[in-house]
Amino acid sequence: MLAGIRTPEGHFTTEVAGAADAPLVLLLHGYPQTRHTWREQVPALGAAGFHAVAPDQRGYSAGVRPDPAAGLAAYGIDRLAGDVLDLAAASGHGATPFHLVGHDWGGQIAWVVAHRHPERVASLTVLSRPHPAAFRRAFREDADKQKYRSRHHKAFHDPGTATRLLEDGGRRLRRQLRESHVPEAACEEYLSVLGDAGALEAALAWYRAAGALASMEVGPVTVPTLYVWGENDHSVGRAAASYTAEHVTGPYRFEVLPGIGHFVTDQIPAAVTRLLLSHLAASSR
Q1: Which of 220, 165, 226, 175 is nearest to 196 (CA)?
Q2: What's the rounded Cα separation, in Å, for the pair 182 and 268?
Q3: What's the CATH code of the domain at 156?
Q4: Whose CA is closest to 34, among 193, 179, 169?
Q5: Cα–Cα nearest to 30, from 107, 97, 101, 113
Q6: Which of 8, 118, 149, 279 has the fewest C-beta atoms lying within 10 Å of its C-beta?
Q7: Beta strands across the sheet bearing 2-7
Q8: How many C-beta neighbours within 10 Å does residue 71 have?
Q9: Cα–Cα distance between 285 and 283 in angstroms, integer?
Q10: What are phi and psi of 26, to 5 degrees?
Q11: How far apart are CA 125 and CA 280, in angstroms?
């Protein structure tokens, strides 16, 4: 169900399912996706007895879109992590632990929140994005050509990127998604949000505010963690994925998906749902 959640920072466009007093599962999308990436998981979580909340994140939601030209601090990692706690509080879980799920950039934020606020996170599930320290090591060693895999990070600092991606009806952005095996219907859902120049500039501001993602320092995670990685992921090599285990000291499960790429919720949504529900069940005992 489409809904809105208001925090002190503004109004987040959100998909929700399940009873408001049920255990909260907060799902964070990555780039260039939106809340729609969780189209299969949100109703399944609601039916399984959870309160699922999947927002269009800062900049993607029109109601929380500070102008990047006025300064990038509004898109820095501290503010992005703060949004997670604000959303949990606005969903009625300001004092109780919640389950946190993230893909790509949403995964990056999830790792940060789980490290900084373990008392708030009942469990962590991350798709594709390795622990930041694992990524930093793989990038430094250039394991699996990680620098080449991450070349788009630097390109996103170019101020002309958004214009190029959106020209001709978003031809380049659509092509990138299609080449990553994202179905046409999903491409249209993502472009319904990111086809707006303001939204895309804000999405790219996340990268610009972060500077070099390979320099971000995040400590070990102690909460129960499920990490899911597709072996055909074009942006994350096996080394970065494998190194992640070194940075989780709590219960840890690493699932490798043969033949699957970066956009796992678009390629095999049912498998993602099964893995997620299994992890939540184990973490709720």
Answers
A1: 165
A2: 10
A3: 3.40.50.1820
A4: 193
A5: 107
A6: 8
A7: 2-7, 10-17, 51-55, 24-28, 98-103, 121-127, 225-230, 252-257
A8: 12
A9: 6
A10: -105, 120
A11: 9
Amino acid at 113: V
Q: What is the pLDDT of residues 210-231, one digit of tens each?
A: 876 657 789 999 999 999 999 9
Cα 259 from Cα 129, distance rounded (Å): 17
Q: Are 272 and 245 in contact (CB under 8 A)?
A: no
Tell me: the pLDDT tens digits for 119-166? Answer: 999 999 999 999 999 999 999 999 989 999 988 777 788 888 888 999
Q: Which residues contact 25 (CB under 8 A, 6 or more apart)?
A: 45, 50, 51, 52, 53, 98, 99, 100, 101, 280
Q: Which pTM does this prediction carry?
A: 0.96
**How many domains in the chain?**
1
Which tokens go with 231?
């072996």
Give residue-wise pLDDT tens across range 45-95: 999 999 999 999 999 999 999 999 999 999 999 999 999 999 999 999 988
Identity of the residue numbered 91: S
Cis amide prior to 32 (ω within 30 degrees)? yes
Using CA atoms in the order 138, 143, 149, 152, what is the torsion angle rounded to 10 degrees? Answer: 40
Q: Are 98 and 25 in contact (CB under 8 A)?
A: yes
Domain membership of residue 219 as a residue range: 2-283
